C-alpha cells in the first residue's frame, strides 16, 4: 500500500457504490465476485475497480476474485462504517424530520443524539424520541455528549451560520442538505482564503437535490446519451 | 463537435458543478472566466474542464476564456434547464413535503403539477397549493396534464412499484429519493435483463442521503485524504 496524500472524491463515491453492490450480492447469497463483475455492475472498467481498491490495500487473490463478505467488511472498515457515529441534526423542519426518520440510516450506526432548531414552535417538541433544543445550546450540549457529525437541514440563507455554530462546537463533519455552498470561513471575517482555525480539518459533504434534478433533466432530454453506469464513471 | 454515443455521468455531474460556479461568479459580477479558473474552483484539471465542455461544442475563444453569462446560458441549454419541467411527486410524507417545498427548485422551472400518495390521511389535503391524489389516479392524471418527471419519495419497499406506476403512465424521468436501487423491470415479470417495453428510454437518477453520510464518514475519519475538489474529480 503506497502512502497517498489525497484520494479522489469519485473513488470514495465508487467505494460506496461497490459496497451497495456487495450488500446486494450478499442478500442474494452470492459468495464470490471479481473486479470485472463489480465493474460491470457499477458501470466502470475492471481497471478502475482495482485502482480504487488499491488505495486501501490488497483485498483479493489474483485469479480468484473477492469473497463477498470479506470485501464488504473491508470496505465498511475503510469507509468508517464499522463504528457508531453520533450525529446532530440542525434544522428540524420537514426536511430535518425526514432525515431523522430516513430508513436505513440506523443500519450504518449513524445515531442521532440531538436535534436543534431556532423555531419556538419546534423547541421542546419530541421528534423520533429526541427533544428539539435551541441551536444556541449546541455548545453546551457537546460538553456532555460527544458529537461526530452535524447534518444541516436549515434554509439556505441560514446554512453558513449554522455550519459556523457546528464548527465552533468542535464538530468536524458536516453533511449539508441546503442548496448552497458552505464556505470554510468565519462568518464575521468573511475570509475564505484564510478561514479561522476552527475550520481546520472540517469536512463538508453535500446532498444536493437540485444536482439530481439537473442530471435528470439532461438525461430525460438525451436518453440515448446515458452511459450504462449506476452512478458515475470516468 | 464529434458525434458521441454516451457521456459519462461524472461529466454531467461536473457540468452541474460548473454551472453552480458560473452562477456564483455572476452573482459576484465577474464577467469572464477560463478553463483553469473553473478547474481550480471545481477541483479538477483545466484539461478535464475543456474535455467536459468539448462534448457539447465550442464555448470559448482560445486565449480569451469564457464570458460568464454566455457559458452559463449554454450550460443551462445543454442541461435542459432553459425549459419548464412538469413534475409529479409520489409519496407526500415528510420527505415528499420537504421536496415540494425545497427552496430554489422553482428557479430552474421544475414545476410541481401533481402530488400522489396512498395514505387516506394525506389524500385530499393541500400541500403547496396542490391537492394530494391517490396514486391509482396517476394514469388518468397524465391524460390531461403532461408530466415530464416523477420524484419518488416513498418508503424503500414501495419504490419499485411506484416507479412501475410512473413508467406505465408514460413518465420517462425518475428521481429516486428512496434508499434502494430501482430496477428497470416489470414487477410481475421480475426480469431485469429484458425489462418491459414501457421501460425503454427511462432515466433513473438517485438522490442518496446514505451515500453522502458514508462519504462524510470516510472523510471525517481521514480529513488529510480530502482532495481539494468541491464534488468530484478523477
Automatic annotation (TrEMBL), chains A, B:
The keyword Transcription regulation applies. The keyword Repressor applies. Residues 80-181 form the CoA-binding domain. SMART domains: CoA_binding. Residues 17-56 bind DNA. Its main location: cytoplasm. Gene3D superfamilies: NAD(P)-binding Rossmann-like Domain, Winged helix-like DNA-binding domain superfamily/Winged helix DNA-binding domain. Keywords: Cytoplasm, DNA-binding, NAD, Repressor, Transcription, Transcription regulation. One of its GO terms (cellular component) is cytoplasm. One of its GO terms (biological process) is negative regulation of DNA-templated transcription. Modulates transcription in response to changes in cellular NADH/NAD(+) redox state. Homodimer. This is Redox-sensing transcriptional repressor Rex.
